[in-house]
TrEMBL record, chain A:
Lineage, highest ranks first: Eukaryota, Fungi, Dikarya, Ascomycota, Pezizomycotina
SUPFAM superfamilies per UniProt: Thiamin diphosphate-binding fold (THDP-binding), TK C-terminal domain-like
Protein known as: 3-methyl-2-oxobutanoate dehydrogenase (2-methylpropanoyl-transferring)
A Pfam family annotated for this UniProt entry: Transketolase_C
Needed co-factor(s): thiamine diphosphate
Keywords, alphabetical: Oxidoreductase
Domain Transketolase-like pyrimidine-binding: 81-257
Presence of keyword Oxidoreductase: yes
Organism per entry: Cucurbitaria berberidis CBS 394.84
The protein's Enzyme Commission number: 1.2.4.4
Gene3D superfamilies (UniProt xref): 3.40.50.920, 3.40.50.970
InterPro entries linked to this entry: THDP-binding, Transketo_C/PFOR_II, Transketolase-like_Pyr-bd, Transketolase_C
Enzyme class: oxidoreductase
CDD domains: TPP_PYR_E1-PDHc-beta_like
Automatic annotation (TrEMBL), chain B:
Name of the protein described by the UniProt record: 2-oxoisovalerate dehydrogenase subunit alpha
Gene3D superfamilies assigned: 3.40.50.970
Residues of the Dehydrogenase E1 component domain: 104-410
One term of GO molecular function: metal ion binding
GO biological process terms held by the UniProt record: branched-chain amino acid catabolic process
Chief place of localization: mitochondrion
Job of this protein: The branched-chain alpha-keto dehydrogenase complex catalyzes the overall conversion of alpha-keto acids to acyl-CoA and CO(2). It contains multiple copies of three enzymatic components: branched-chain alpha-keto acid decarboxylase (E1), lipoamide acyltransferase (E2) and lipoamide dehydrogenase (E3).
One Pfam family here: E1_dh
CDD domains in the record: TPP_E1_PDC_ADC_BCADC
Stated family: Belongs to the BCKDHA family.
UniProt-listed Enzyme Commission number(s): 1.2.4.4
Record key words, sorted: Metal-binding, Mitochondrion, Oxidoreductase, Potassium, Thiamine pyrophosphate, Transit peptide
InterPro entries: Alpha-ketoacid_DH_E1_comp, DH_E1, THDP-binding
Amino acid sequence: MASKTPSMRVLSRYLLRPQASLHPRCQHRAQSKQYSAGAAGARLNGTVEYDTIPILHHTAKSTLSNPELPADIRKGQTKRINLYTAVNEALRYALQTDERVLVFGEDIQFGGVFRCTMNLAADFGTERVFNTPLSEQGLVGFAIGAAAEGMKPVAEVQFADYVFPAFDQIHNEAAKYRYRSGSTGVHCGGLVIRMPTGSVGHGALYHTQSPEALFTHTPGLRVVIPRSPVQAKGLLLSAIRSQDPVLFMEPKILYRAAVEHVPVDAFYLPLDKAEVLKPGKDVTIVSYGTPLYTCSAAIAAAERDFGCSVELIDLRTIYPWDRETVLESVKKTGRAIVVHESMMNAGVGAEVAATIQERAFLRLEAPVKRVTGWATHTGLMYEQFIIPDVTRVYDAIKKTIDY
Amino acid sequence: MSFRYTSRILRLQRGLGVQTSRNGCRVATNAPVWQHCRAVASTANAEKVLFPGALNSEFTSTLDFLQPSQTQAISTYRVMNQYGEIIDKDIGVETTDEEALDLYKNMVKLSIMDLLMFEAQRQGRLSFYMVSAGEEGIAIGSASALSPADVIFCQYRETGVYMQRGFTLSQFMNQLFANAKDHGLGRNMPVHYGSKELNIHTISSTLATQIPHAAGAAYALKMQNMWSPETEPRIAVCYFGEGAASEGDFHAALNIAATRQVPCIFICRNNGYAISTPTSDQYRGDGIASRGAGYGIATLRVDGNDIFAVRRATKEARRLALHDGGRPVLIEMMAYRVGHHSTSDDSFAYRQRVEVEDWKRRDNPITRLRKWLEDNALWDEDKEKALRSVTRKEVLRAFEIAEKEKKPSIKNAFEGVWEELTEEQKMHVEELKDILTRYPKEYDVEQYEGGISGLDELLAQKKQT
Ligand SMILES: Cc1ncc(C[n+]2csc(CCOP(=O)(O)OP(=O)(O)O)c2C)c(N)n1
Ligand SMILES: [Mg+2]
């Protein structure tokens, strides 16, 4: 039969008339460069330019000027890599330097569906880097047990949307292990659960979600979301070193889109510090992960159009989070906006806004504005209206300043 | 037992508010035997173990671990060999010539649609697609052996089930393009079909979640079958991959299906891979079939390349599933995933090209049926050519029409989350509308049916009383 069937290419050349331009939504890989495709005449939406955006380090000099990096790293080499390669480098370093580190998950042996574990099985052997059966509760529970017996498992859940079978293991087990073990001292620190998170523009209900808020409602967990290759490498290494279980949520659109100069050697970034990405005077924007790029583009337009000055903060560690950096900024600017992809109700924005009104009420010149997903699911055709875009952030800046 | 049973029925009817003129006794006599718990006590000189957890076990003084690796693998049921020859001529194929031709045409249609849509995705005209190559016979054959009223739950690689049940090419295309005519209202990724008329629940990307749903649905059907003995009894059917069978939901589903004795056929498509993961990393038992016994479920392994075997197995499973009111049945349909996992996957990153080519050459459900048809003078090269050309045109016509349709109304972004729009949602709709109105150049709202007025419709909705 196969031989009798005309090849796909021949068939389609004959049958499907190719169109002049590809639909921007239709990249066959999830790592589409388009984040939020603007309409044809758009001035704001679709203006995230990864090649020039100031929140990525486009030169070695810029990377090495980071005061969080230790002195020897700041004198060292850098290499331009994307986010999945940064994750790969961190895993590689951890595997090389600590025999207790294990890396496993669904499909990770051939490199993983997002390529984060490329070549690790070949280089470190399938005793330490291996495929698991298709069961999130199984593989996360397995990781907890291994961690409780002294290993450092880095378990991958294929998509954040599929972490829920493991919810019980994470919320009731990983988070409570140390507490319930009391003076026996047993805990599952050393455990890291990695997962790709967030929207890519065509993931619909189950390849789009950002469920971080469900895990920030759990004492005992650390929830980390890196925004860039440098951050991914440094934060993942800290997560593996941490003695608390860490959920490491990697914005999947950034795996390929975010490219920057990253120190070649290993380094650690703090798990308890937010980072001011851009100083400003009039309004503070607090965000994390992919929306930081949206915010950065919106800030550029707003500062140009309104002559205002906006401070941008990357929360990085979503829980426990750095209240001090946020409050210090808001006390200075008097205005705050929180931006995230997941829905508004009981989201991270609610916690940040509540904290700001509790602790900086008298400094506030405007209500804290939340720019987030709406109270709905991320239907395929409606993602561009649901996920915060440059226009919505731009408008939020305008409204907050004009308040 | 009959008293207990009757009273349970009566209680149920009261509880669910079902009005019926049937009297309890009549129902009870026709009623299935429900699993019931026997309380037993051990006697001092008993030969058998009377522990409540394993009632029929005998004592032994031989220390003998069960070694699954040493037992013979479960056989694979076939009606027809790879040359299209019928093995047991007395039984035959239990399929009329017209039926066989229909099945063949549907398999070809499915494979042509797959080729074209895969390529359409590669051209950027579709965001995603999944082909069924190598598994056409499983989906189409099993669906052909069910009653249209049976309720079906799919994983995603069962496009043939929809096709066999009558999902039209335009219905497929409308879903794939998520246009205004899509049953899913433009909400789901391509290939997440659903059809109320065809009794197939809408596909969810989350693996294995549908398996316990099928058990529960089958329980609902079991009760409804009892309430209306005059209508043809229905069963539930659940499809899933051998990878999905590693999820907790699979195990939970089979166990609860057994304890509640539900009329459900669990059809595992074992195609050798779960994305890149080969079965050797997925399990160490004898496939999925070996698990049936563990749950006390009747089980069969079938050659999925043999559509006659698939049909016969499914028919018999359906009979078993309805016997005595209900019981679950597990069928493991063996296949090889000829295509990539999906359009997001390049399977040559983890398997050899020759492995795939070998399989394609060795055996395939479509070629096998074609051999049988040709041997029976029902098919020839001219017919093949004509069928392919007509089918291609049909697919492309549906494709072109669907591609031109508008996108669904934006109201579908918010509707259907709760039964009615909440106050919070209305606030969100108002905020979105305000943005779309003040920044019209930033959005392509006109591609959506009704443009921005879709949101007005939502805001105009009155609370239903
Ligand atoms: C809960 C969950 N975990 C992971 C995934 C990602 N995923 C999608 S398909 C797939 C493999 C499924 O393999 P199998 O069940 O054998 O079906 P096949 O693709 O072979 O038809 C995986 C891991 C998912 N969709 N849902
Ligand atoms: Mg499979």
